[in-house]
Amino acid sequence: MLKENYEKVKENIVRACEKAGRSPEDVTLIAVSKTKPLSDIEELLSDTDAVDFGENKVQELVDKYENVSRPVNWHMIGHLQTNKVKYIVDKVCMIHSVDSLNLAKTIEKEAAKHDVTVNILIEVNVAQEETKFGLSCDEVLPLIQEIKDFPHIRVKGLMTIAPFVDDPEDNRVYFRKLKDLSLDIQSKSIDNIDMSVLSMGMTNDYEVAVEEGATLVRVGTGIFGARNYNI
């Protein structure tokens, strides 16, 4: 069933790309495996071309990193506390949720200790929801200016978590705003700053996100089914 779900999402991404005149190769599907057992990841690894997986919790990411049968691209997509950075800084291909100078400084410090360079995205709370983390659009450029010279960090783009809505079209405005922000920052040609990655869109709205320029979509329920948060 996981294979069928995964392939269905991939098909939807292809269709959304065709609608927007984009190449499907420009969009990476991240299977959000949070709260799901390692066996589900192994099933996807054996039955599909999945290589990118997203986790929200540091401990869960570390456990799966240490036990998965072959290397995969781990994405830290959840809120990251500074005291947990040291556990994952050498294990992830990208941290999606950088939303403060303090966190960026901690990533830089721990990356230096491990002699690695970490790809990060700046998390933007485009919809200004009080219950979500992330910077306002106006706060993004000042943070980038502060961290652009950090030698062990590479800013690759932006991330947002759009509101949960009944109609995915309601989130188009937020995806478009994030895309516009990335283009504005890119136009400034800031050294060491790349805006090629837009992480936006989840199970409920990833097709609209792709139409608006997403390069990474984070799909959990659409692949793995509903989560049990009581485990």
UniProtKB/TrEMBL annotation:
<keyword id="KW-0663">Pyridoxal phosphate</keyword>
<protein>
    <recommendedName>
        <fullName>Pyridoxal phosphate homeostasis protein</fullName>
    </recommendedName>
</protein>
<comment type="function">
    <text>Pyridoxal 5'-phosphate (PLP)-binding protein, which is involved in PLP homeostasis.</text>
</comment>
<feature type="modified residue" description="N6-(pyridoxal phosphate)lysine">
    <location>
        <position position="34"/>
    </location>
</feature>
<dbReference type="GO" id="GO:0030170">
    <property type="term" value="F:pyridoxal phosphate binding"/>
</dbReference>
<dbReference type="InterPro" id="IPR011078">
    <property type="entry name" value="PyrdxlP_homeostasis"/>
</dbReference>
<feature type="domain" description="Alanine racemase N-terminal">
    <location>
        <begin position="7"/>
        <end position="227"/>
    </location>
</feature>
<dbReference type="Pfam" id="PF01168">
    <property type="entry name" value="Ala_racemase_N"/>
</dbReference>
<dbReference type="InterPro" id="IPR029066">
    <property type="entry name" value="PLP-binding_barrel"/>
</dbReference>
<dbReference type="InterPro" id="IPR001608">
    <property type="entry name" value="Ala_racemase_N"/>
</dbReference>
<comment type="similarity">
    <text>Belongs to the pyridoxal phosphate-binding protein YggS/PROSC family.</text>
</comment>
